[in-house]
């Protein structure tokens, strides 16, 4: 536990705090009475995401790139810094690898110095294009080490290795979560992920771009459910290292998602079919048995309800 005077409030560092997930986590922790310091390079994140808590007295922002060491006194760390959408992480793949690998080393060294807990936002991409379905944590994955997605997938896999090596070698209290596709308000309108693309296209009346035949599947978790899982895990009174899958086991084809969004937006957009990107996983669904057993967690928000809230947020932002 770090020492900082008589303040009983826990100080939390969130790297990537200006991003989609990071800003929701920040808001929730501030509402729970914690102090939050967001460190973010603003590569894909934006200060607009701070709108609802910018002036909160227990909120601070530091513009910082996690590839550079950071010295700060906190009680717990959530390491979320990393571009998450394929267009963004492929924009400068070398920097993506550095963000995952050097970022993990720098944050783990900080956790070692402070003797504090650290949660790592890993990803279902560590399973690659899975040959086991649904994916349990024991599955080692099927990942191409040299393809266009590798900077992200292998970067995150190496970060997992570092977390476990710091745990074994330095006795760091690590909490590793593997996040499956998550969506919700504040997603970047042009970050290229499927939920944001389809909603923006439907609201503008533009064609809905389905890659491939749209028969590939994904499981979509609403952001509030995911953040609840993060916080339960951080607050868990045990040294459970994970990895723990967090995601919604409801599985849909991309075509089904497109049709649902057209229906909920009352849009007349047409469906157009584009080439499937290289190494695009055919199917993905989390096995969340472990999250249920260890965290007492399971998602509560159905896809349709989550999509409604997300559509409403995009409607408001697109009208501005
Ligand atoms: P996001 O792009 O909205 O947020 C990432 C944040 O990290 C941004 O604010 C960005 O500016 C910041 N960042 C990037 N590189 C940085 C660097 N070198 N130094 C400091 N800050 C940096 O994405 P997100 O969806 O909020 O994802 C957050 C984390 O969760 C990422 O680590 C991502 O890999 C992981 N994740 C997300 C999903 C999902 O579906 N949203 C799924 C699996 C894993
Ligand atoms: N996708 C699509 N149209 C789009 C964007 C994505 O059909 O405009 C597909 C993409 O090929 C993939 C799925 O939707 O099969 C999820 O893509 P996303 O980039 O959101 O996440 P990831 O592939 O990382 O799971």
Concise account of the structure shown:
This protein is α/β, with parallel strands linked by helices.
Description:
- The chain is of the alpha/beta class and 320 residues long.
- The protein has a domain at 11-185 and 221-248 and 286-300: NAD(P)-binding Rossmann-like Domain (Rossmann fold, 3-Layer(aba) Sandwich), CATH 3.40.50.
- It is built from 9 helices and 13 strands.
- The chain has helices at residues 20-31, 86-91, 93-114, 150-170, 194-204, 223-235, 254-265, 289-295, 303-319; strands at 11-15, 35-40, 59-63, 76-79, 117-123, 174-179, 182-183, 208-211, 217-219, 221-222, 244-246, 251-253, 271-274.
- The strands form 4 sheets. It has a 7-stranded parallel beta sheet with strand order 3-2-1-4-5-6-11, sandwiched between helices. It has a two-stranded parallel sheet with strand order 7-10. The chain has a two-stranded parallel sheet with strand order 8-13.
- Helix 3 packs parallel to helix 4 (150-170).
- The longest helix has 22 residues, at 93-114.
- The chain is globular.
- The model has no long low-confidence stretch (mean pLDDT 95).
- The structure holds nicotinamide-adenine-dinucleotide and uridine-5'-diphosphate.
- The site of nicotinamide-adenine-dinucleotide has 28 residues, from helix 1, helix 3 and strand 5.
